[in-house]
Amino acid sequence: MLPTPLTTQVPYDLVYEPAEDSFLLLDHLEEDLPFLRTRFPRPPTGPNPAPAAGYTPVVVELGTGSGIVTTFMHNSIFPDRANGPGEPASAAVFLATDLNPFALQSLQNTSCENGGTRFLDPCRMSLGHGLRPHLVDVLVFNPPYVPDDQPVPAVPATEDRKDPGWLDLALLGGEDGMDVTWVLLNDLDTILSPQGVAYILFCKRNKPEQVAEIMVQRGWHVHRIGERKAGWEVLSVWRFTKY
C-alpha cells in the first residue's frame, strides 16, 4: 500500500477534511496505476534522454481542498525522477484548482509537508475554465456531490475566515448532487487531451450508472474502478476515456 500524505497544516474549519471519499480516490488511483503507466510511459532518465522516448503528462485535480490527492499523485503515481546528479526531472506537471483560497494555501502546505515539488501550480478558478483546451491528460475530481434542496452555494464574497460558505462550497451539489459534476462532464471533451483520462467520484444518490449510460452515448468509454460503503452512503470512482 502506498503511503497516505500527511495533512496536519490544513485549517479544517475552512477546508474540506480528507474523509472516506478522499481515501477511496487514493486507493483506486493506486489500483489503476498499471493503466496509467501504460497510457503514459515514464520518460527515460539520464542527462540526454531521447526527445520522443517518453511523455510528460499534465495532471490536474479540480477542487483540491486539502491537497491530499494531488500530493499523493505526485509522490506515488507520477513521482519526480532523477535526471542527473542533483537534478530532479518531472514525471508529470501538476495543476490543482479551487475557488477556496484557503484550500490553495493548504495544498501548498500539504505538498511541502510531504516533500514538495517544483512542478506544481495552484490555480484559483472554477473547475478547469481557465485552462487551455485539450491540455489535461489526467484529471481527478472529488466534486461537491451531496444532494441538497438548495442551489449550489455561491462563492463567499470575501475571504472571511469566519464564513461557513467555504465548506458548503465543497460539499453541496444541488438537488441531485450533480449540478457541478454535470458542468464538468459537459466540458470534458474540451478539457481532456486526446489520450486524456478523468477519474470522478460519485455517491449512489447521484445515480452514476445513469450518468455512465449518457456518457457512453456521447462516445466515452466509462468504467467503474471501485465502490465502497461509507457509513450510510455508497461511493464509487469512475474512469472516463475516449479510447
TrEMBL record:
Domain of life: Eukaryota
Protein name as annotated: S-adenosyl-L-methionine-dependent methyltransferase
Cellular component terms per the entry's GO annotation: eRF1 methyltransferase complex; large ribosomal subunit
Organism: Nadsonia fulvescens var. elongata DSM 6958
One biological process term in Gene Ontology: ribosomal large subunit biogenesis
GO molecular function, one term: S-adenosylmethionine-dependent methyltransferase activity
Similarity-based family: Belongs to the eukaryotic/archaeal PrmC-related family.
Keywords, sorted A to Z: Methyltransferase, S-adenosyl-L-methionine, Transferase
Alphabetized PANTHER family for the sequence: METHYLTRANSFERASE N6AMT1
Listed PROSITE patterns: N6_MTASE
